[in-house]
Design goal:
The protein has a five-stranded antiparallel β-sheet with strand order 1-2-3-7-6. It has a five-stranded antiparallel β-sheet with strand order 11-10-9-12-15. Strands 8-13-14 form a three-stranded antiparallel β-sheet, covered by helices on one side. It has 234 residues and is α+β, with helices and mostly antiparallel strands. It has two domains: 80 residues, Phosphorylase Kinase, domain 1 (2-Layer Sandwich); 136 residues, ATP-grasp fold, B domain (D-amino Acid Aminotransferase, Chain A, domain 1, 2-Layer Sandwich), CATH 3.30.470.20. Strand 1 and strand 2 form a beta hairpin. The protein is built from six helices and 15 strands. The structure holds adenosine-5'-diphosphate (ADP) and uridine-5'-diphosphate.
Length: 234
């Protein structure tokens, strides 16, 4: 594999072309942002951990029938993925109340939800990622109805798989965000799965083991990411 031109510099990752037109090289940075880019920082070593954790989750999901973009980990901070035509949506699944849901519904953080909630957000930095429903998605032609149904089904399956994996490690899966893209007429799970885009709480102490430690200035940010890696992979 030969690293090619820079394709896209994101907030947490940089994406490069490769000599294979169907594959991209994703480089995981230590940069962290929150509140729609208002807060910036660096979490030393985060890129290395998120690359490892994403590899772990994508492999576990593939073994359980969830098709995704992961090809192979090729460096400490680099993974090779299938090049997808990305769908401009963030698909969020929630099992417990946290983050924006606390404000929007006035519920207490940590309240368990009787059924998982699926939400869609328009991936648009200019608009601040507004929440959408199925009708908005259809009207904006962001995805077709069958693609939307597929994404929702996969998101809920991912939720069940990750919840079980994490429960065995004494971690509650509070919520998470997924992204999807098209490849050869199929919708595949993409991007990353890490403490940057999931909320993980210790089941017993409710200690936060994710990016909320950065968002809320709780300290011990990289230690929390490290703890997740250790619990899952060691
Ligand atoms: P952001 O764009 O929100 O700043 P990142 O820093 O994580 O996010 O950048 C990674 C970018 O790569 C995102 O825009 C994401 O949608 C995109 N991406 C993730 N997986 C793939 C893929 N398999 N093919 C093409 N683009 C992808
Ligand atoms: N999330 C994300 N990227 C975003 C917004 C949210 O990865 O741009 C994740 C976030 O880490 C959490 C879940 O999606 O696991 C739900 O986030 P929420 O809507 O509560 O927003 P936040 O509190 O992050 O503003």
């Amino acid at each position: 594999m030969i690293k090619g031109n820079l394709l896209y510099e994101g907030k947490a990752k940089t994406v490069f072309e490769t000599d294979n037109p169907n594959e991209l090289l994703v480089y995981f940075k230590d940069d962290a942002t929150a509140f729609n880019g208002e807060k910036h920082g660096t979490i030393e070593g985060k890129g290395v951990i998120n690359n490892k954790l994403s590899e772990f989750f994508f492999k576990q999901l593939k073994d359980r029938g969830i098709k995704n973009h992961f090809v192979e980990k090729v460096g400490e901070r680099e993974m090779l993925v299938k090049k997808l035509d990305m769908i401009k949506l963030e698909v969020v699944v929630r099992n417990f109340v946290a983050g924006s849901l606390v404000k929007r519904l006035g519920l207490e953080e940590g309240t368990p939800l009787t059924v998982p909630i699926v939400e869609y957000y328009y991936k648009s930095d200019e608009l601040g990622d507004p929440m959408l429903n199925r009708w908005h998605i259809m009207a904006l032609d962001l995805a077709k109805i069958d693609e939307l149904n597929q994404m929702e089904h996969v998101a809920l399956s991912v939720n069940t798989i990750l919840r079980d994996l994490l429960r065995a490690k004494n971690v509650d899966l509070i919520d998470f965000k997924l992204e999807f893209g098209r490849f050869d007429g199929e919708v595949l799970l993409a991007d990353e799965i890490s403490p940057d885009n999931c909320r993980f709480w210790d089941t017993v102490t409710h200690e936060k083991l994710d990016k909320d430690r950065f968002r809320q200035d709780l300290g011990g940010v990289v230690e929390a990411y490290q703890e997740m890696l250790q619990r899952l992979t060691l």
